[in-house]
Amino acid sequence: MARGPLVSTAWLAGHLADPTVSILDATWFMPGSPRDAAREYSAGHIPGAVFFPIDEICDHATDLPHMLSAPADFAKAVRRLGVNRASTVVVYDAEGLFSAPRVWWNFRAMGHAATFVLDGGLPRWTAEARPLESGWRRSSHGDFRASQPNLNLARDLEAVRRALADRSEQVVDARPAPRFAGDVPEPREGLRRGHMPGALNLPWSSVTADGALLAPDDLRSAFEASGVDLAAPIITSCGSGISAALLALALATLGRPDVAVYDGSWTEWGGRADTPVAAGAADT
Fold first, then answer.
1. What is the mean pLDDT of residues 44-69?
2. Domain check: are 80 and 169 in the same one?
3. Which of the following is catalytic: 238, 248, 249, 250?
């Protein structure tokens, strides 16, 4: 069925009519992109898939983007998408592998272990000439409950401060190297350039190829080349918690399902005046 947290297109194709499988289209694009995720979903999606709006199913009490919801709020939202307590959740996105891991991480943080990411996403599905449907699908209400959330999979600002100060956890930033180094502006206005002092940099594109994760040996090499100790505690970060979840997915395939995501990521850290910022390459 699956390679760790990944499920194959062949398996999903054989389970499109399975009522215990909930398929979620979690397509999301960077700020400023001309693409519209909801419009693309309506134009063509995997049969039975329901659209998961990342910027709506989130904590609305903060101005930080798509922060993790309170468990009760998350459960209420995904029940509307037809997700049940017994559902096997399969998430995909239109990039192949970019935003789907964020929703995979959301469900895991809510205690729903039976959650997987479609290996290769929609591009692989369409390249294999598998069926699509158009229009807007709505499901009957499910009975999902976030009764045993695992919030140890998330880190807040103060936890990241402590980790950087005492080196108790490695912080791995998934942003592209020029953003990490402070050589280019951030896509969100008002954020400082650079990175958290002591953080490591592994751009999310370094763990993917053609919209899919690299093979395990290649993933391991990519993390180790960036100075990451795969046996030690890890927090992943990025611009707003999207590609940080992709690194967490990659690490889960290497036997590290315990990796935490810094939910506020650089949008929070780089948007404050009381957080230190470094520039240049990672200081290991």
1. 97
2. no
3. 238
